[in-house]
């Protein structure tokens, strides 16, 4: 036994705080407005890519392995959609991942879920960032029934 | 209450993200925030090399690889254990779509400062940076754990640790020459 303590606490490195809280810079409102403006230029290209990606995903479901790969592709669409403020589309794709994790869903059911969610997400993307969540949810419920 | 201003012009941010399509979006958003230097890396081994070279002030790290292995957590542990100060104490935000309490807990125990759920918007990204800057915690070096102090509150405890937690939340403990526990 020694008297040496097992745990040491250090003052955190203040560098980041000192650099960032200088009083200048941007507020959250300003930062988000600037980011939205910066992303506006590439939003159209994303929407075209995402719709094509969703269509491609839907056509490929032939096995469990494909389903797993498709889940990765879906996650890519979802994450990018959210950053482009396509919240309704991102939510639909996120919801699909949850639906597919149902162990009782067979391949036919999964195909149907994929198709329904892909169509609903494509519809949301076509509507733009202001797409209504409620409308998209209703569309999805109809397609997935 | 006025909004907090962040001046990111002199900061360097590292993004470890296997989805390379997101790199451009991160870059555009962080550039719009005024970030000085942004590095994006698609793999965790490459990220260790980049971390060594660039010594970023902040890192965002995806937890899972495409086979859903938690390689991002190993990356955080390696930074915390293998790097010297001050690099080992750089704020690291773990990120993942898998947000079970187990995953979040594992990220915290690996030494992540915070956890950001995917998908997130640009506002979430800015708020996360604000949170890391404002919520500064002592850095712990222990045989079993290296990383920011995980104690954020001590509910129901009446001893000195409770007062310590309150001080911690208020930030008043900073710069007071913390002693070994």
Automatic annotation (TrEMBL), chain A:
Protein name: Uncharacterized protein
Organism: Roseiterribacter gracilis
Automatic annotation (TrEMBL), chain B:
UniProt cross-references to InterPro entries, sorted A to Z: CheY-like_superfamily, Sig_transdc_resp-reg_receiver
SMART domains, sorted: REC
GO annotation, biological process: phosphorelay signal transduction system
SUPFAM superfamilies: CheY-like
Any matching Pfam family: Response_reg
Domain spans labelled Response regulatory: 12-133
Name of the molecule in the record: Response regulator
UniProt organism field: Roseiterribacter gracilis
């Amino acid at each position: 036994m020694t008297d040496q303590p097992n745990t040491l606490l250090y003052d955190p490195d203040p560098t980041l705080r000192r650099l960032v809280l200088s009083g200048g810079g941007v507020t959250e409102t300003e930062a988000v407005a600037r980011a939205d403006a910066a992303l506006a230029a590439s939003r159209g290209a994303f929407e075209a890519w995402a719709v094509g990606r969703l269509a491609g995903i839907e056509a490929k479901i032939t096995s469990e392995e494909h389903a797993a790969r498709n889940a990765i592709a879906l996650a890519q669409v979802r994450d990018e959609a959210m950053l482009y403020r396509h919240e309704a589309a991102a939510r639909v794709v996120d919801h699909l991942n949850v639906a597919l994790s149902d162990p009782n869903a067979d391949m036919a059911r999964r195909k149907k879920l994929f198709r329904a969610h892909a169509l609903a997400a494509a519809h949301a993307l076509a509507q733009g960032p202001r797409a209504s969540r409620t409308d998209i949810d209703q569309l999805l419920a109809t397609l997935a029934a | 209450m006025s909004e907090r201003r962040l001046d990111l012009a002199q900061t360097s941010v590292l993004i470890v993200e296997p989805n390379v399509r997101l790199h451009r979006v991160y870059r555009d958003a962080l550039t719009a925030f005024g970030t000085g230097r942004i590095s994006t890396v698609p793999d965790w081994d490459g990220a260790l090399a980049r971390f060594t070279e660039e010594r970023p002030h902040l890192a965002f790290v995806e937890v899972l690889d495409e086979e859903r292995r938690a390689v991002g957590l190993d990356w955080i542990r390696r930074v915390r254990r293998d790097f010297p100060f001050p690099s080992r104490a750089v704020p690291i935000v773990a990120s993942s779509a898998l947000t079970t309490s187990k995953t979040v807990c594992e990220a915290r125990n690996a030494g992540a400062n915070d956890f950001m759920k995917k998908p997130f918007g640009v506002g979430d990204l800015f708020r996360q940076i604000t949170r890391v800057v404002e919520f500064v915690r002592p850095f712990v070096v222990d045989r079993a754990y290296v990383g920011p102090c995980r104690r954020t509150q001590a509910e129901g405890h009446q001893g000195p640790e409770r007062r310590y937690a309150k001080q911690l939340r208020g930030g008043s403990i900073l710069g007071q020459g913390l002693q070994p526990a």
